[in-house]
Amino acid sequence: MLDEVAPGTDDVVITLGDHVDRGPDSKGVIDDLVQLGRSTRLLSLLGNHEEMMLDVLTGRQPHFEWVKHGGQATLESYGFDGDLDILPESHIEFFGNLGDYFESEDYFFTHAAYDPNRPLDDQPDELLRWHSLRDGVPPPHASGKVAVVGHTANPEGEIVNMGHILCIDTHCYRDGYLTAVDLTGGHYYQASKDGRSRFG
Asked: Mean per-residue pLDDT for 64-92?
Protein backbone atom coordinates (compact mmCIF):
# COMPACT_ATOMS: atom_id res chain seq x y z
CA MET A 1 0.00 0.00 0.00
CA LEU A 2 2.71 2.48 0.98
CA ASP A 3 4.71 1.64 -2.15
CA GLU A 4 1.67 2.35 -4.32
CA VAL A 5 0.63 5.57 -2.56
CA ALA A 6 4.25 6.76 -2.13
CA PRO A 7 3.47 9.68 0.21
CA GLY A 8 5.93 12.57 0.07
CA THR A 9 7.18 15.04 2.62
CA ASP A 10 4.36 17.50 1.89
CA ASP A 11 1.57 14.91 2.07
CA VAL A 12 -0.72 14.34 5.04
CA VAL A 13 -1.41 10.68 5.82
CA ILE A 14 -4.28 9.98 8.22
CA THR A 15 -4.65 6.47 9.62
CA LEU A 16 -7.98 5.64 11.23
CA GLY A 17 -6.94 3.29 14.04
CA ASP A 18 -6.86 -0.45 14.66
CA HIS A 19 -3.17 -0.52 13.77
CA VAL A 20 -2.83 -3.49 16.17
CA ASP A 21 -4.60 -6.85 16.58
CA ARG A 22 -5.37 -7.19 12.88
CA GLY A 23 -2.62 -9.60 11.82
CA PRO A 24 0.46 -11.51 12.98
CA ASP A 25 2.89 -8.57 13.11
CA SER A 26 1.38 -5.58 14.91
CA LYS A 27 4.84 -4.54 16.08
CA GLY A 28 5.99 -4.44 12.46
CA VAL A 29 3.00 -2.28 11.53
CA ILE A 30 3.89 0.25 14.23
CA ASP A 31 7.56 0.15 13.17
CA ASP A 32 6.45 1.03 9.62
CA LEU A 33 4.22 3.86 10.83
CA VAL A 34 6.95 5.30 13.05
CA GLN A 35 9.26 5.27 10.02
CA LEU A 36 6.55 6.82 7.83
CA GLY A 37 6.09 9.61 10.34
CA ARG A 38 9.72 10.61 9.78
CA SER A 39 9.20 11.21 6.06
CA THR A 40 5.69 12.65 5.83
CA ARG A 41 3.05 14.28 8.05
CA LEU A 42 1.40 11.31 9.77
CA LEU A 43 -1.77 11.76 11.83
CA SER A 44 -2.92 8.52 13.45
CA LEU A 45 -6.19 8.03 15.33
CA LEU A 46 -7.02 5.89 18.32
CA GLY A 47 -9.14 2.85 17.46
CA ASN A 48 -10.97 0.54 19.81
CA HIS A 49 -8.15 -2.01 19.54
CA GLU A 50 -5.51 0.51 20.64
CA GLU A 51 -7.84 1.49 23.47
CA MET A 52 -8.10 -2.15 24.62
CA MET A 53 -4.35 -2.66 24.31
CA LEU A 54 -3.40 0.47 26.25
CA ASP A 55 -5.98 -0.26 28.95
CA VAL A 56 -4.35 -3.66 29.50
CA LEU A 57 -0.73 -2.46 29.32
CA THR A 58 -1.43 0.31 31.83
CA GLY A 59 -3.37 -1.97 34.18
CA ARG A 60 -6.72 -0.22 33.78
CA GLN A 61 -8.48 -3.34 32.46
CA PRO A 62 -7.91 -7.11 32.66
CA HIS A 63 -6.52 -8.78 29.57
CA PHE A 64 -9.37 -11.17 28.76
CA GLU A 65 -11.34 -9.13 26.21
CA TRP A 66 -8.27 -7.79 24.43
CA VAL A 67 -6.58 -11.19 24.09
CA LYS A 68 -9.59 -12.81 22.46
CA HIS A 69 -9.92 -9.94 19.94
CA GLY A 70 -6.40 -10.13 18.52
CA GLY A 71 -4.35 -9.16 21.53
CA GLN A 72 -2.61 -12.53 21.73
CA ALA A 73 -1.01 -12.07 18.30
CA THR A 74 -0.05 -8.50 19.18
CA LEU A 75 1.66 -9.64 22.39
CA GLU A 76 3.51 -12.36 20.49
CA SER A 77 4.71 -9.87 17.88
CA TYR A 78 6.33 -7.88 20.71
CA GLY A 79 7.97 -10.99 22.17
CA PHE A 80 5.78 -10.96 25.28
CA ASP A 81 7.38 -12.96 28.09
CA GLY A 82 5.07 -12.07 30.97
CA ASP A 83 6.22 -8.47 31.40
CA LEU A 84 3.68 -5.93 30.12
CA ASP A 85 6.43 -3.32 29.76
CA ILE A 86 6.97 -4.42 26.15
CA LEU A 87 6.77 -1.24 24.06
CA PRO A 88 9.95 0.36 22.72
CA GLU A 89 10.25 4.10 23.31
CA SER A 90 9.31 5.00 19.73
CA HIS A 91 6.09 2.97 20.07
CA ILE A 92 5.23 4.58 23.42
CA GLU A 93 5.54 7.94 21.67
CA PHE A 94 3.40 6.75 18.74
CA PHE A 95 0.58 5.48 20.97
CA GLY A 96 0.81 8.57 23.16
CA ASN A 97 0.20 10.79 20.14
CA LEU A 98 -2.90 9.01 18.82
CA GLY A 99 -5.77 11.45 18.38
CA ASP A 100 -9.52 11.09 18.78
CA TYR A 101 -10.30 12.86 15.51
CA PHE A 102 -8.78 15.07 12.83
CA GLU A 103 -10.50 17.87 10.97
CA SER A 104 -9.66 19.45 7.62
CA GLU A 105 -11.44 22.09 5.58
CA ASP A 106 -13.96 19.71 4.01
CA TYR A 107 -13.64 16.48 6.01
CA PHE A 108 -13.29 15.12 9.50
CA PHE A 109 -11.89 11.74 10.47
CA THR A 110 -12.77 9.38 13.32
CA HIS A 111 -12.22 5.68 13.86
CA ALA A 112 -15.89 4.68 14.07
CA ALA A 113 -18.62 7.35 14.19
CA TYR A 114 -19.73 10.60 15.82
CA ASP A 115 -22.57 12.51 17.44
CA PRO A 116 -23.97 14.80 14.71
CA ASN A 117 -24.94 17.56 17.13
CA ARG A 118 -21.80 17.81 19.29
CA PRO A 119 -18.57 19.62 18.41
CA LEU A 120 -15.75 17.30 17.41
CA ASP A 121 -13.79 18.20 20.53
CA ASP A 122 -16.73 17.05 22.70
CA GLN A 123 -17.52 13.61 21.26
CA PRO A 124 -18.23 10.50 23.38
CA ASP A 125 -15.45 7.90 23.28
CA GLU A 126 -18.02 5.17 22.69
CA LEU A 127 -19.12 6.74 19.40
CA LEU A 128 -15.62 7.66 18.26
CA ARG A 129 -14.19 4.18 18.75
CA TRP A 130 -16.88 1.53 19.18
CA HIS A 131 -20.09 2.42 17.32
CA SER A 132 -20.89 0.22 14.33
CA LEU A 133 -22.70 1.84 11.43
CA ARG A 134 -24.79 -1.34 11.32
CA ASP A 135 -26.33 -0.17 14.60
CA GLY A 136 -27.30 3.17 13.12
CA VAL A 137 -25.89 5.66 10.64
CA PRO A 138 -25.62 9.15 12.11
CA PRO A 139 -27.03 12.00 10.05
CA PRO A 140 -24.67 14.65 8.68
CA HIS A 141 -22.54 16.43 11.25
CA ALA A 142 -23.50 19.97 12.21
CA SER A 143 -20.24 21.21 10.65
CA GLY A 144 -21.45 20.14 7.21
CA LYS A 145 -18.20 18.26 6.64
CA VAL A 146 -17.97 14.72 5.28
CA ALA A 147 -16.95 12.09 7.84
CA VAL A 148 -14.25 9.57 6.89
CA VAL A 149 -14.41 6.53 9.16
CA GLY A 150 -13.38 2.90 9.49
CA HIS A 151 -14.41 0.28 12.08
CA THR A 152 -17.52 -1.06 10.28
CA ALA A 153 -16.06 -3.58 7.86
CA ASN A 154 -17.67 -4.17 4.48
CA PRO A 155 -17.22 -7.90 3.68
CA GLU A 156 -17.51 -7.15 -0.06
CA GLY A 157 -14.27 -5.16 0.16
CA GLU A 158 -15.87 -2.01 -1.26
CA ILE A 159 -15.79 1.55 0.05
CA VAL A 160 -19.18 2.63 1.38
CA ASN A 161 -20.02 6.18 0.33
CA MET A 162 -23.20 7.54 1.91
CA GLY A 163 -22.60 11.11 0.83
CA HIS A 164 -22.00 12.52 4.30
CA ILE A 165 -19.99 9.47 5.46
CA LEU A 166 -17.20 7.64 3.67
CA CYS A 167 -16.42 4.31 5.35
CA ILE A 168 -13.15 2.84 4.13
CA ASP A 169 -13.00 -0.31 6.28
CA THR A 170 -12.94 -2.86 3.47
CA HIS A 171 -12.42 -6.01 5.57
CA CYS A 172 -8.63 -6.23 5.28
CA TYR A 173 -8.30 -8.21 8.52
CA ARG A 174 -10.18 -11.08 6.91
CA ASP A 175 -10.27 -11.55 3.14
CA GLY A 176 -10.83 -8.00 1.88
CA TYR A 177 -8.55 -5.07 1.18
CA LEU A 178 -6.63 -2.38 2.99
CA THR A 179 -7.86 0.89 1.50
CA ALA A 180 -6.32 4.32 1.12
CA VAL A 181 -8.22 7.26 -0.38
CA ASP A 182 -6.67 10.34 -1.92
CA LEU A 183 -9.25 12.94 -0.96
CA THR A 184 -7.62 15.66 -3.04
CA GLY A 185 -7.87 13.70 -6.28
CA GLY A 186 -10.74 11.31 -5.55
CA HIS A 187 -8.66 8.19 -6.19
CA TYR A 188 -8.42 5.05 -4.07
CA TYR A 189 -5.81 2.35 -3.65
CA GLN A 190 -6.45 -1.12 -2.26
CA ALA A 191 -4.14 -4.00 -1.35
CA SER A 192 -5.03 -7.50 -0.17
CA LYS A 193 -3.08 -9.83 2.10
CA ASP A 194 -2.16 -12.02 -0.86
CA GLY A 195 -0.68 -9.12 -2.83
CA ARG A 196 -3.58 -8.15 -5.09
CA SER A 197 -3.99 -4.44 -5.84
CA ARG A 198 -6.97 -2.42 -7.03
CA PHE A 199 -7.19 1.22 -8.05
CA GLY A 200 -9.98 3.58 -8.88
From this structure: 95
